């Protein structure tokens, strides 16, 4: 969506994505404005689709989801029916945190969060039971060095 954002809009977006639980008064103070203009800008950016759903970040390790796998998938099937089934399978699996279709040698990459290697194997077995895949490579993340949801505004 092509929406023009000025410097104030970008300051508001930076403040909101850093901590969406802040009150309108706090956001206005951070960006150097008053509450009503900030609220109007936030409302317009929501209506334009720039600001989407608000959510919270939960510590996966605290919930026992200590293993993060990056799953590289190659397929020899690229027809619409296969892609629709693959997408439906991914959407039905809560372990899949992200999925991307790629350019290059690998067709797809998934970010999968599970408790351990055994849980990953259950995920893998369910995945290949649902869709035909030519090759799967799973890479275990040993340490998350950086994580952010903040876009570089």
Automatic annotation (TrEMBL):
Keyword tags: DNA-binding, Transcription, Transcription regulation
Cellular compartments per GO CC: cytosol
Transmembrane segments: none
PROSITE patterns noted in UniProt: HTH_ASNC_1, HTH_ASNC_2
SMART domains: HTH_ASNC
Organismal lineage: Bacteria, Pseudomonadati, Pseudomonadota, Alphaproteobacteria, Rhodobacterales
Domain HTH asnC-type: 5-66
PANTHER family, alphabetized: DNA-BINDING TRANSCRIPTIONAL ACTIVATOR DECR (PTHR30154:SF17), LEUCINE-RESPONSIVE REGULATORY PROTEIN (PTHR30154)
Gene Ontology biological process terms in this record: response to amino acid
InterPro entries (UniProt xref): AsnC-type_HTH_dom, Dimeric_a/b-barrel, Tscrpt_reg_AsnC-like, Tscrpt_reg_AsnC/Lrp_C, Tscrpt_reg_HTH_AsnC-type_CS, WH-like_DNA-bd_sf, WH_DNA-bd_sf
Keyword Transcription regulation: yes
Identification of the protein by name: Lrp/AsnC family transcriptional regulator
GO molecular function term, any single one: sequence-specific DNA binding
One Pfam family hit: AsnC_trans_reg
């Amino acid at each position: 969506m092509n929406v023009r954002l000025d410097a104030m809009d970008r300051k508001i977006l930076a403040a909101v994505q850093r901590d969406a639980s802040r009150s309108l008064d706090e956001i206005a103070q951070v960006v150097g404005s008053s509450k009503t203009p900030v609220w109007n800008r936030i409302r317009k950016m929501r209506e334009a689709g720039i600001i989407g759903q608000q959510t919270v970040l939960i510590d996966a390790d605290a919930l026992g989801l200590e293993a993060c796998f990056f799953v590289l998938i190659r397929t020899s099937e690229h027809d619409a029916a296969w892609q629709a089934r693959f997408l439906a399978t991914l959407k039905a699996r809560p372990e899949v945190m992200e999925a991307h279709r790629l350019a290059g040698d690998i067709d797809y990459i998934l970010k999968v969060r599970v408790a351990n290697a055994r849980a990953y194997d259950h995920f893998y077995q369910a995945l290949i039971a649902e869709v035909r895949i030519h090759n799967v490579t799973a890479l275990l993340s040993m340490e998350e060095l950086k994580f952010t949801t903040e876009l570089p505004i």
